[in-house]
Amino acid sequence: MDFPRLADVIFKHNSFIVTSHIAPDGDAVGSVLALTTVLEKLGKNVVPIINDVVPAKYNFLPHSEKLRPYIPEKDRAEVMICLDSGDVERLDFKKDLRSICELIVNLDHHKSNSLYGDINIIDDKSSAVGEMVYYLVKTLNVPIDIDIATCIYTAIITDTGSIKYSNTTPSCLKILSEMVEIGVRPDFISREVFEKKSYASILLLKEVLGTLKLSEGGKIAYMELTRDMLKKVGAKEEDADGFINFAREIESVEVAVLFREQDNLKVKVGLRSNVWVDVSKIAEEFGGGGHARAAGCTLEGPLEKAKNVFLSALKEYMQTSKRDRGERSN
Ligand SMILES: [Mn+2]
């Protein structure tokens, strides 16, 4: 990875926007805050921007109060560093990034990345962008303090599902270990990121689990989240984070799907797989993307139509990839 070149860019410039994708997760927020703190330590002007609501559970991250959406009349920088975002749309600046900055750096681990930067550093072997930020910080030779360590640790445990997913590697375990040596408390972060839930979130879980269905002999499990459910229990969409895993955990299941009805008659589709289905491929068929085991896309509503369209495409895709897999192993 070309971190020496990126380090040169960082040393040579003074003003930066550090940003990440909408519907931000722990990797997005943690990576943005870690890199922001590092750049500030180097004496740079840095504005950390996320163009969406940041879930309150990330408020414990050091300097999270600095995060804000883009302000058109105010924000300009020499360099914009985009983290964990496979395409420009997911950054949601609603204008050409060129009118905001001179140089775009695209640092990401999604293999579906559209290479929208002037400098593109993409590594789909990295567990999280937080891991890439770690190696960048090492290249920059900035000492990692507890604030930076907390952010990097959170980024990695989020994207590895608390070191449970197949993207867990010796490299990310070494980094986590170093962060714990610096003073990060795994129990504290685990409670903040994975456990603490609002009461409304648990009520919402009841509603969503009530829609659980199996298909294809139990290989597919799918559920839905409607606007009415959110209203009924007074929950926010972010309260459904992680629900899809209940479907994925069923023993027979290979692919779990969560259909989330949006305000604008669109339907977001979250996807997880366990062993052999590359869900990023099926997400790409619908203009989305992601990773082999976790991906997503958006379909036109209404919900019933989106479900039918998507599930029949998924079934067909699974039959085809099963054939391919059989051919490869023969
Ligand atoms: Mn990520």
TrEMBL record:
Pfam families (UniProt xref): DHH (PF01368), DHHA1 (PF02272)
Example GO molecular function: hydrolase activity
UniProt keyword terms in alphabetical order: Hydrolase
Domain DDH: 16-156
SUPFAM superfamilies per record: DHH phosphoesterases (SSF64182)
Keyword Hydrolase appears in the UniProt entry: yes
Gene3D superfamilies registered for this protein in UniProt: 3.10.310.30, inorganic pyrophosphatase (n-terminal core)
All copies of domain DHHA1, residue ranges: 225-319
EC number: 3.1.-.-
Protein name per its UniProtKB record: Bifunctional oligoribonuclease and PAP phosphatase NrnA
